[in-house]
Predict the structure.
Amino acid sequence: MSVLPPLVRGEVPPGTRIRRLTEQIEGARTGRGLGGVVADLWYAVTVTAALAAVAYGTAEVVREVAVRRTPEGLAIGEAGVVLVVLAVAGGMLALGARLGPVALGGGAAGWWLPMPVDRRGLLRPSVLRWPALGLAVGAVAAPLAALCFGMPGTLGAVLGWAGLGGGVTALVAAGAALVQQAPRAARTRARTGAGPAVGAGAGPGGREHLRREQALAATGDALVAVAVAGIAVLLATGGWEGWHLHRGGWVAAPLLLAAGALTLLADRGSERLDGAGLRRLGALGERAQVAVLALDMRELGRALTAVDTRDRRRPWRLRARGPMSAVAVADLTLLLRTPRALVQVVLLALIAVVTARSALVGPGIVLYPVLVLTGFWAANAAAQGARHAELVPALDRTLPLSARWARVAHGVAPLTAAAVWSAAAVATVPGLGPVAPAWALVLAAAAVRAAYRPPPKYRMPAVSTPMGGVPPTTGMTQGVDVVLVGTLPTALALYVGVTTPILVAVQWGVALALVAALVAASGRRPKP
């Protein structure tokens, strides 16, 4: 009962045939038939419809709240929708550069790549994946942003914004797939006489691939940063009323045609892709997928920042005096050599400041979740040294420091970032200036606690919830709990609308007591 059809002796089958044979073998092993295909399609349709309904309902709620608080709502013009599309496209570019956009992992890389067949047929689904995903994400994000920002919700307008958003994101994703297969690395290997790279960064070709991926990821991050800053400026200034696209649906058709053309070019040039790069990016993609399924955000961050590692050094150095100073200086140097983390801190502070001054939120209890989210994110962006120390504890054990004081030293970099964020976000809110340093202490302690949380315990059974089985995270909320408990007096002050000296004293007392308790408990061994 062989699934393989008879092959002519000496004939090399095309890559498409090998891929279809693999699918047939997998279907025969799992008993996959027409019923399974129909069930998968029905599941995809229902999930997509449910997500679209939830997103549309959320957009309508935001719009109604905005109109209730201010007559003009969030009507910042079409420029805001364009900036949202730019942010989504930048996110797709950054994510695609870190996980692909063309990659093979697992059994596909181990079985297909060594075969003497054309790779075009083997890689076609991987080439089409990111442009199709970008088309779907952009087609959903742009109309929702238009509804939130007060654009008319007619069918023609929604279709026009969907075409514009889908065309831009699909074009960016297809362009990333085309840049990935630029032939410069192949010419470099041919000129230097080096063989094909066998690992990440091996030889000139491997280094060229890494530089290209880093450039694409940095470009995507820059697009997101510019778009978020532009949206913040629009919300603060009320928008650009004189700027519009004159029914921007006319731009959608050329963008979609260009995205299709670039996708076809990427498919034709997939033969130039290096096998080592496909394996490496496929392994990163599987690592990120496992982290998402396990709800392990720390591991997901490590997978997404693996491409950002740079081998060049800055000309300046920081000097250390003693073991604790050495740990703190090393973390600060790592932070200063990571422009992405610095940009995150600045952007998060800008978002918090603009949100506090917007008519939709204002200085009330609604501002509290924004402060918690942006502040915790900013402190976590600077806690790379603590996360590295948790991953490789031998680094700290080489120094004459106890576990408690090593964690205290690793808290200097998050404290610096949290202090910068608090000075811009918390201190500028009316009445919250005296508690800004207390917020910095709490956020730094929360970032260190989150960095040292235990990994997921896969041997434990899944947790049953109304939404389905959830893997045991064993500490996913570590860090967030510190922020919520340590800033509870500020939440009370925002709720009542008055910041009294008693609330300020209570906030400082809670912050100092919580930090002292965390420092005292940091030297204990975790329970197995």
Remarks:
- Residues 14-73 form one domain.
